[in-house]
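During the reporting period the student researcher (J.K.) took over the structure-prediction task from the postdoctoral fellow and processed the backlog of single-chain submissions. One of the processed entries is reproduced below for the supervisory committee.
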Amino acid sequence: MDYKAAASYWTEKDKSAVKMDPEELKAEIEAFLAKHKVCALATAAGDFVRCTPIEYNYVDDCFYLFSEGGLKFKALESNKHVCMAIFQESADFGNLASLQVTGTAQIVEPWSEEYVKIVEFKKIPVEVLKKLPQPMNLIKIVPEVFDFLKSDLKKKGFGSRQQLKVV
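J.K. obtained the following structure tokens:
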């Protein structure tokens, strides 16, 4: 197996692909995000790897994920680098759409202004959350790179895979 050749497949293919204007690409990505609410969040530390299906909200160019807890926090304690995958359920050839987001995670302090803002965005009554035995954890993911794959982009004259770096 030539792992290096396989790993460089998209990098090489992207060199000759027609690129979208970054603002147009961002609009395509945000339209895709608006249609989806669940991602697979990948976290890792050393030999430990976890991939968690979890609901997200995209607010002010960041992703917010509420969680009671779980093994993802084992990895997040020492490694803040994460990857999210969001995808269209249909895998029909020629009708693919998916987004991988690479970024860094932060834990938002419970009851901080940012925390309350997201609680209100989700229309969760604050008093209900305050009755829980412990506050819900709020993970904020600051995106660095979006890798967007959408078959329909070819119809517009672009490569089906587009990358947007935001850092």
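The committee noted the following: The chain has a mean pLDDT of 92.
J.K. will present the remaining backlog at the next meeting.
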